[in-house]
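## Example pair
The file below holds two records. Each record gives the amino-acid sequence first, followed by its structure token line.
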Amino acid sequence: MVKVKLTKTELKAQTDALKRFQRFLPMLQLKKQQLQSEIAGITAKAEETRAKERAARDGLDRWVGLFATDESLLSGLVKVKGVKTGSANIAGVAIPTFESIETDVKSVDPWATPAWVDNAVDTTTKVLSLQCERAIYEEQRRLVALELQQTSQRVNLFEKVKIPACKEAIRVIKIALGDEQTAAVTRGKIAKSRVPETEVES
């Protein structure tokens, strides 16, 4: 424990600090619960997106055999040029949000390529979009988890260090001030008993 001054001023400072910590702690605990809830929600969305991605990939399976006849069609058919994102705020944490993707579709001759290429482009674009959306959810989870870690550290600091230290300091100061007051009263009585009665009467 850090050494504290055994004075009334220090007692007031420690009492004020204790009240401040006890006032902030419930807010930090509430924020911690909110962040935990948000992480659970983000994880659920990420898993839902992953399931959609799997379903879309399964839809691609029917094109695989067709692609095998001309691998040049598959190579670079659809590329992601950019990802459009927005922003949101969760318990004070700025996070990106997924909006859409911009794709670059390989130029093909509609007369020289099979009709199913258009369907393959749509399905591939959907898979890429879901992949990008899931990546945004992963980034959201990383940012919120980082804030949760910091908030948890603050909660632990208040619960296990700051508040107990203040309580202990207050206890020690009160004992010291009480001892000092008792000693002062005792000294006063001793001093009074040593004064001759004639001096007291005069």
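Second record, same layout:
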Amino acid sequence: METTKAIEIPGYGSVMLFGAVRGLASEVERQMDAIKEFGPDVIALAVSKQELDGLMSSLDGVDEDHMTNYDEIYSRHLTRYGDVGMPPPDLIAVCRYAVENDVPIRSVDLSELSMYRASVKFIKPIETVRYGMLMRNLIGKRFKAGTAAEFALEWDGQVRRIKGFRKLEEFREDQMARRIHWLVSNYDRVFAALEVQRLEGVVQGLERLTRASRS
């Protein structure tokens, strides 16, 4: 399964998109090898501005991370594939690399307020009820995935069966693609650290924006 994608945007710069299984400790080495090999001028992190602030605080020993019920159920299944950490060790490693190497790091996901507004726009009340039922069903579900990345995509597929949540994730992917595209207009080499579930959607969004910029 492809979890990295390099895109050249003519007249701008290059982007290396990396899809990680967020929270899985074994992803740290793979991700850091990719960052060091690419040598970015800026790092785009698929978290909210508030989450990024919390991650940076955690480097100083201040742990502001709180797991939702969704996170707990997901993490419980993810332990089948290795050790899982909170805050996600792959994100902590990226932030530490940025600080130690004086590389700017930028949030490209929706802010908490924007996420709330988007949720209200796309998700109907009945779909929130269906989501709660889905989470209860997923607690004891046996997933077919043989790898962590396959599990993450299978899990995401379950959630995206609910139309409102699918629309929300598509909106997030579009917004992340637009923000990464903007970064490429200001930096030559952009490394984007994404969840593997969002990788393909962001790639497609960047390719659309690249085609549009050529026309």
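Notes on the second record: The mean pLDDT is 92. The first strand starts at residue 4 and ends at 8.
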